[in-house]
Amino acid sequence: MPQRSLVAVARRVGHDAHHVAHVASLGWKDWNVVRYARDGDFILFTNNASGFRHLYTAQLPHAGLIILVPAVDGDLQWRLFKAALDELAMVGEPVNRVLEVDLDGDDATLARYDLPQQRISSVLPRGPAAFGCQDRRLPAHDDSKRRC
Prior knowledge:
5 strands, 148 residues, 5 helices, single chain, five-stranded mixed β-sheet, alpha/beta
């Protein structure tokens, strides 16, 4: 299966999406990317958890940060990204929050937290119906994981 453009997927569901390679000068440092996202009121999607989590701690207010924890590509990356978009559609934009997408065996896990961290998690199966789960909303005080 050909790799799908994450930008195209985000645009298809109504987001104003840009790939850093198309908007950034070569050699941009992470803080340049953060500034661009902040100034444009963009949610930043990245695989660089430690670098951007640290930078976003000092960037309040911000539109949000989505971190894809496992370094995967192709169809699995697309499916995890789509899970993040589905989560945003259900719970709203992650203003001043982080949404981390990770894998736990065959399950996709989604964790939402403020900076500093205050985790709210849910677990999604990776099977054929994995990203059609409709009941992933968790109350702000709930730090448990749920399977859909």
